[in-house]
Amino acid sequence: MFDIAPSEFLLVAVVAIVFIGPKDLPMALRTAGRWIARMRRVSNHFRSGIETMIREAEMEELERKWREQNAEIMAANPAVPETTPAPLPDPAAGQTVAAAADQHDAVPHAVPVLGSIDPVLAAHAPTEPDQPLSTESAAVPHTDKSA
């Protein structure tokens, strides 16, 4: 550490004991520790300030490049006129996307609207909240394989 030999540390310790005295040495070491900690905090604050300035400069450079690239892209691709989107179907009225497509020519196939109930799933839904789902179906007859 700092290219100081152990014998030099021993010499500094002996000189400190002789000149400061064993009685005041702990207080002197504590004061030196406080000063060293204060210097470290100042240097860390200074270093973080420099790093922040560098980061901001890099971000400004990146933003400038992005603006230039965006301008080039916008110049190469002229703007397409905006079209008005079709209104969304009304789920409260049970309207499907297919019905909305017939009205607005937006979607060519039927897709149920969120919130609408599928009749096949509704037939199997329990009537009470704590009942299990029904396994019987009109489309698939139940067969007993235990016999």
Automatic annotation (TrEMBL):
Keywords, ordered alphabetically: Cell membrane, Membrane, Protein transport, Translocation, Transmembrane, Transmembrane helix, Transport
PANTHER family linked: SEC-INDEPENDENT PROTEIN TRANSLOCASE PROTEIN TATA, CHLOROPLASTIC
Single GO biological process annotation from the record: protein transport by the Tat complex
Membrane topology recorded in Swiss-Prot or TrEMBL: Single-pass membrane protein
Pfam families cross-referenced by the UniProt entry: TatA_B_E (PF02416)
Annotated spans, Disordered: 121-147
Domain of life: Bacteria
Subcellular location: Membrane
Gene Ontology molecular functions: protein transmembrane transporter activity
The name this protein goes by in its record: Sec-independent protein secretion pathway component
